[in-house]
Amino acid sequence: MRPLTREAYLNAVTHFVNWLQQTYSDEFDPQEVIARDIREWKNHQQTVEKASPNTINLRLVAIGRLFSWAHGENIIQMNPAADVDLINVSELKPKGLDSRSLRQLLRAIHKYGSRRDIAVIELLAGTGLRVSELLFETEAEMDMFEVPYVKIASSFFHDRIHISILWHSVSPIEGRVIR
Prior knowledge:
Elements: H1 3-24, H2 35-47, H3 53-72, H4 99-112, H5 115-127, H6 131-136, E1 149-153, E2 162-166
Antiparallel strand pairs: 1-2
Helix pairs in contact: 1-3, 4-5
């Protein structure tokens, strides 16, 4: 398990245990937890905390994995999280520029931008990469002017596919070589 995933799961379990202790004024005992407790915790996050559906789902998955493990180890008799559904998250289109605005940006960046600016904007526009994913890359992982490609482990792709982008490609708007 990745360190950030482990930290997120730990935070989710801590959140659940704290809520449970505040709600029942009792020490946490995994054998005492019932499905209704988890559903009420889910409802509390939605109505009182106004947590995002993705945050709630992450927490529910973490709790589900904890109780699944505890059930498998015979620590508890039943998995109380097994019957608790995740929140349906509607597919949201990523926010982005319309085609005309994108073309204007690309033209402006090719006219006034540095090689780095051109490379960054072309990379974002051409791959669908998130800005946060690009910013997360380190200099060691992406030395775009020393090697002919960039390898990015993107969390956008569920199985973390590595994307290779050739820098010696031709810009679709200006027909200029990016290097």
